[in-house]
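Lecture 7 notes: from sequence to structure.

We start with a single chain of 289 residues. Read the sequence below before looking at the structure.
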Amino acid sequence: MAKFLNHFIGLNINPNDLELQNPNFITRNYKYNQADILYKLKDRNVYYLIEQQTCVDYSMAYRILNYCIETIRLAIKDENINNKFYKFPKIIPIVIYIGNIKWTASTSFANCEVEYPDFNFNSLETKFKLIDINNFEIEALLRLKTMIANTMILEKSKNNDEVVENLKKITKNLTSQKSKMKELKRIVSYLYENMKNIKEILNLIEESEDDANMSTVAERLREEYKNERLIGISQGISQGISQGIAQGLSQIIKNMLNYNVPEEDIIRYTHVDKKQFDKIKKEYENESK
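Now the structure, written as tokens:
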């Protein structure tokens, strides 16, 4: 976390100065919310709130506003805030975006409020720092030689071939850091836990001192990734269609496009004709600009 904040936010934090917090909040209207990560600066009322997004969420600014309010509410507890010397906790919200399309949602809640030119004052100026992994080149992330950067590289991979090639680069980059190989195995195990041969693949990664072993890893990943992708598409589409009754088939198709499901698969499983699909796709592309 310290390395992440220091590199991507431009801070200078010692790891010993960070305290992991429980990021689960029960809001006043009893709806359950959960931020991904919450850290506190030791001996100071400063919090770092991290949220990860796989797709563009136009309600993100509102969600972050709620997370900040709930963090403050839990932090102040029974403190006496009704005095001129009291300072409320500072919340630094950060959104890590790992989607494939450009982020187009606002990072400021004030920009999401209705316009009122007669009163030029933003009452709720809550902003979050957006870290879009699409803005980082693979080679630049490799030079960091950190597990956070390696995780971002794998998340940045758009297909199974890119996963394989990037895993090769990461492993080669760690040849002089054997202690990091266990961390890499843990990351790969987390990201691809559903693969049937994941344990065997992980062992090959740890022993991958030559191209022969990495070629074997690559082949296993290609085979497993292909199978998991087909199963995932089938399950995801079936679930999406059942939800489509309530949500609208148009939105389900847009969600599929967002996750790069092939057009022929979308048409086949949703039973829309090509003309209807093209119309929805055009709407999706206009919304994504």
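The longest strand covers residues 46-53. Keep this in mind for problem set 3.
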